[in-house]
Write a structure and sequence with these properties.
single chain; ABC transporter permease; 14 helices; transport; MetI-like_sf
């Protein structure tokens, strides 16, 4: 299969999957208990005419299929509707909070890749006490959920030691980096442990392959053997985790942003779910699904470049 044909097929699959996801997301909000009109009235009693006016304004009484098609048409034009709680366009709300979330996820992703790969490399290459320490550390990391890590880090480094801010997003790039340091660490901890373990296992497996033994018998320096013949052959396995890593970061950012009071889309999703702000929940959910699918699409395109033995459209461990 040619690269162009594969890319076009995957794009068509992504479009179909997004359409199905949009239907499920809208349907879940449609079937959710509660009435947005009650929130708009802030618990105040209102006449049937007032309820009718609100329902007409937001088309809440229209049949499901009409509401869905109207919403889908707006989404295709880049219009996610109007927030019920904030009374402003949803795209404006998301646009204001998206930079904080993207920076948080980006910082966490850098930590996951750099620290996870480094620990996996050390455990596989050094062995002995170093490998034991890596296994103990990664076991602790994998066993610590993001919200627990957020509470522990906030209590130690913010409340007790006062080294980092306890919450907020900061203003300006430097201030944002400082404020998001602890949230990014809490967000990355679990994935660091998981990636380190996968990298270590993959490298140990490749070390037992014949081509590695042959390279060593020819007098190739151990450093080059590890870099060219071992680590390079594990990158395919690591790359297949790309979608899982990004999706986990996006999901866990809801808990971490809430714990650290970060003004991102994760916190916005949590607040909007509580207040039944359906347009915001629908928009953020669809964006998360789209990002996840885009990452998997990029991984599928890069995998054959990292490991030529993998054909376009296939996934699996290399070695």
């Amino acid at each position: 299969m040619t690269f162009t044909r594969f890319a076009l097929r995957r794009l068509a699959e992504m479009a179909a999957t997004l359409l199905a996801a949009s239907f499920l997301i809208f349907g879940a909000m449609y079937l959710a208990p509660g009435n947005p009109a009650s929130f708009l009235l802030s618990g105040r009693s209102a006449s049937p005419a007032a309820y009718q006016a609100i329902n007409d304004q937001y088309h809440l009484n229209d049949p499901f299929w009409q509401q869905y098609l109207r919403w889908l048409g707006q989404v295709l034009r880049g219009d996610f509707g109007r927030s019920i709680e904030y009374r402003t366009p949803v795209s404006t709300l998301i646009g204001a909070r998206l930079p904080s979330t993207l920076l948080l996820v980006g910082m966490a992703l850098v930590l996951v890749v750099v620290v996870g790969l480094a620990l996996g490399w050390l455990g596989a290459v050094r062995g002995g006490a170093t490998d034991g320490a890596v296994l103990v550390g990664t076991t602790f990391a994998v066993g610590t959920p993001s919200f627990v890590a957020a509470v522990l880090l906030q209590g130690l480094f913010s409340v007790k030691l006062g080294w980092f801010p306890s919450g907020g997003s900061g203003s300006g790039f430097g201030s944002m980096l400082w404020h998001l340091a602890l949230p990014a660490t809490a967000l990355a901890l679990y994935l660091i442990g998981m990636l380190a373990r996968v990298t270590r296992s993959a490298m140990l497996e490749v070390m037992g392959h014949e081509h590695v033994t042959v390279a060593r018998s020819r007098g190739v320096m151990e450093r080059q053997v590890i870099r060219r013949h071992v680590f390079r052959n594990t990158l395919g396995t690591v790359l297949t985790m790309g979608g899982l890593i990004v999706s986990t970061l996006l999901i866990c950012t809801v808990l971490v942003e809430t714990a650290f009071s970060v003004d991102g889309i994760g916190q916005l999703l949590d607040l909007s779910t509580t207040t039944k702000d359906f347009p915001v929940v629908q928009a953020i959910s669809l964006i998360i699904v789209g990002i996840f699918m885009l990452v998997n699409f990029v991984v599928d395109l890069l995998l054959p470049l990292v490991d030529p033995r993998v054909a376009l459209g296939t996934r699996g461990a290399t070695g």
